[in-house]
Amino acid sequence: MMNTRSIYPFTAIVGQERMKRALILNAVDQRIGGVLIRGERGTAKSTAARAMAALLPEIEVIAESPFNDDPHTPQSWSDWAKEHKSSGQDLKVVKRKIGFIDLPVSATEDRVVGTLDIEKAIKQGEKHFEPGVLAAANRGLLYIDEVNLLDDHVVDLLLDSAAMGVNIVEREGISFTHPARFILIGTMNPEEGDLRPQLLDRFALAVDIHGIRDARQRVQIMERNLKFEGNPDEFYKEWEPKEKELANKIIAAREVVDNVEYTSRDLVSIAALTSSLQVDGHRGDLVILKTARAQAAFDARKAITDLDIAIAAELALPHRIKRGPFHQTEITVAELQERIAEMQQQAAAKGESEVEAEEESEEKEPVKKKA
Q: Known catalytic residues?
């Protein structure tokens, strides 16, 4: 378990606003599907991931469950929790800090998904499951440094679990199921090789970050790091009010995100935007909608706006665009807002012209005489 005060505060990170926003929105709604952070060395990638985990609130779990089962959602319980409940055992509830699981690059499939003891099942008739990384990460944060160096098959397994929210292990006709909902954060240095396009697309959000060029901000980075290294406790106390303020905003947003409303017009705006940028597949559309709802919830609003859609698209589209005017360029929120507005105007103009044409045809249509 991490000692919060030994972790650099999230709110003390200088700059890198896109990265911080992507992490915050995943914390608001982990169903978004994770974030890939690509950048050169020394750009606070791993610092931000650890800081986000330390910022997250405590959660209620079934005390002895190795899967961090949520006592309030029996429909999502692991086979372990269901078996204990059906046998009449008392399931004690405790509060636990959200976990930060660091996956090593050398991780194997069994290490990730867990293993079933087939011999014990056959000889003793007992289903024994040895939990893996996905079990420990459930309802927490799973961090993969140098994700581009991880075996493709293992990355696939992780992304599958992040998307489905469940891990099912089957061996010799025996299966074990447990929940596997987590905030997936992958970091990488593009200089060491990129992910395959198929895997890249499956990360919900992606952010490319660079070293800060502004001299004043670079001075801030040095000053804050020296203070933190000199006295972590004192530095944490200095930033504690801002940390608590952000943590409370995330908690409040988590409670209302499912109630954030959207309209048919919003869906058309998202679809028209991804279509105009020639984005393949439909994953990007869904990610934008989920991210826009998380942004609205974080801002304590009940419905999404065009700005929310633009903010979400800025994080969801850069790694999915292969062609078009924005190819190999950064998309800004302002550019996306302008593009959304243009498409809405075109749709409105088209609607008006269709109405006018219909009215004109009705005027020209001869009136039928009564017999």
A: 283
3-state secondary structure of 36: strand
Architecture of domain 4-231: 3-Layer(aba) Sandwich (3.40)
pLDDT of the residue at 255: 92
DSSP output for 206-239: EEEE-----HHHHHHHHHHHHHHHH-HHHHHHHH
- At 218, which amino acid appears? R
User: How far is 230 from 210, CA to CA, in rounded Å?
Assistant: 26
The per-residue pLDDT of the chain, averaged, comes to: 81
Distance between CA atoms of 230 and 226, rounded to whole angstroms?
Answer: 6
pLDDT band at 327 (very low <50, low <70, confident <90, very high): very low
* Residue burial 33-54, b: 16+ Cβ < 10 Å; e: rest: bbbbbbbeeebbbebbbbbbbb
CA 366 – CA 362 distance, rounded (Å): 8
Domain 258-360 sits in CATH at 1.10.8.80
pLDDT in tens, 154-181: 888 887 787 788 888 877 777 888 888 8
Residues 203, 194: Cα–Cα separation, whole Å: 13
